[in-house]
Amino acid sequence: MDTKFIKKALQMDKSAKTDQHIPPIAGTIFGIMLLIAMFGAIFGDGRFSDAVIGTWVVVWMLIGIYILFALKVASQWEKVVILRLGKFYKLAGPGAFWIIPIMIPHRHGLTTA
């Protein structure tokens, strides 16, 4: 077998996967949201009920997770095709843009046999 071909194929596979990352700005905002949740829980201890503190933490964590997956950044030389429910929505880039990471498709007009 040709080992150069295998090495090249493995290298191409690794290079394709390295581009799929979370933008640093989204990670920073996520960290800030976690700090807000943590400090709110610390300062609210003894002042508010556990249910209120738990709700505070969960809400801030959900906002942070949404931002982590919704905020994307395209490099200067990139354009990104944004699809909504499998259909073309717009062409974005370069720079920061938002996507909707969790979207439940509306199935009207579909029937099952």
Give the helix/strand layout.
Elements (H helix, E strand, L loop, with lengths): L2 H16 L5 H21 L5 H21 E4 L5 E5 L2 E6 L2 E4 L15
Antiparallel strand pairs: 1-4, 2-3
Helix pairs in contact: 2-3
List keywords for this structure.
113 residues, alpha+beta, two-stranded antiparallel ribbon
Question: Could you characterize the architecture of this molecule?
Answer:
The chain is an alpha+beta fold and 113 residues long. The chain is built from 3 helices and 4 strands, in the order αααββββ. Helix 2 packs antiparallel against helix 3. The termini are far apart. The mean pLDDT is 82.
Radius of gyration equals: 21 Å
- Strand content of the residues, in percent? 15-25%
Uncertain runs with pLDDT below 50, 5 residues or more?
Answer: none
* Major beta sheet summary: 2 strands, antiparallel
Helix fraction, binned, reads 40-55%
Distance between the termini: 50 Å
Molecular shape: elongated
Output mean pLDDT: 82
Strand order of the largest sheet: 1-4
Count of beta strands: 4
Give the topology string: H per helix, E per strand. HHHEEEE
How many helices?
Answer: 3
Structural class: alpha+beta
Characterize this entry briefly.
Helix content is 51%, strand content 17%. By secondary structure, the chain is α+β, with helices and mostly antiparallel strands. The longest helix is centred in the N-terminal third of the chain and has 21 residues, at 24-44.
